[in-house]
Amino acid sequence: MTPVSSHSPHGQSPLRTVQVLGGGNAGSSVHVRSLAAGLVARGVRVTVCAPTEADHLYDFTGAGAEHVPVPRSSDPGSVAALRAACADADLVHAHGLHASFRAVLALGGRRTPLVVTWHDRAYAEGARAHLVRLLERRVVKAASVVLGTTSALVDRARRTGARDARLAAVSLPRPRRGAEQEGEDAERLSPKVRAELGATGRPLLIAVGSLDRYRGYDVLLDAARAWLRLDPVPLVVVAGEGPLRGELQRRIEEEALPVRLIGRREDVRELLAAADLALLPSRWEARSVLAQEALHARVPLVATEVGGIPELVGDAAELVPYGNARALADAVVRLLGDPGRCDELRERGVRQAATWPSEDETVAQVLSVYDELTQHRPFI
Fold it and tell me: Which of 60, 81, 146, 170 could cross-link with 48 by S-S, CB 3.0 to 4.6 Å?
């Protein structure tokens, strides 16, 4: 694809954008890192406003962007830091609800175009759910364009009052090594990873994600009881950290479930390469990173039929209703006993992944939106 250039043939200065991240989940942070690298390569000046630890993890400066440390949304100094960073921006692009709300406050009614990307739905219950709806309305009414990573999020933005909501092209950046080299490394490491996890001689099932209520890990533990009757008993490994860790660990110990909580991990691709199946039992997902990684890694996926999952995976995964532990357990048992079906899902996964946007396509779409909103910038 021919790169889109930000340089004007009529003497405009290089476009200056500010990318705003909140806490920055893995999906949005990886996207911003990839987007920053692509924009810089096309001559755009990029500033990333994010917590210091996010730059340590995702190396925005290594992508050619300027990093401005901005505290998380709970810090009262975050809006002031954002206001200073956005003072001479041609366009501000915020990722996620809370980052977007802070961007709205920082811009304070200025005419600087604001692009908002909803990578996922802000999940909340009770009184907090009402607050989330208020924040969503405030953000979409201030935004020039809302980009949603799934059709459901685009529809939600339109129902909330967005004047311009569009489906976003969002790629999953791949390692710079070749696919063949990556595959060889995974094959070499898999026995070691399985041994370290305690899954030698037994099926290994992998789930990845924060230990929050909406992830559906209570349902996963219910399903794990059914797998105790299998021989050998599968090992379920959950990579992630969060507020439910204590509650989940108590259940695992009290019910002697074949489940290990291994905390936050930076080697998810290696874990998936060693796995027999990937599990995604969530109540809600948008453009799930785990689902994309599983299909890329040719690992059969069992996922709930929620949010953006059906749109993302097509016929390349076993989909089950959310909250139905029996359906989840049965789907896993069927796949473990049917190598032919697993091979079929692997091949479908490769084909489905080939339909997802590339990094170049993602950057090109975003830059076309930027050009549309900044075409009347002053000349130098």
Answer: 60
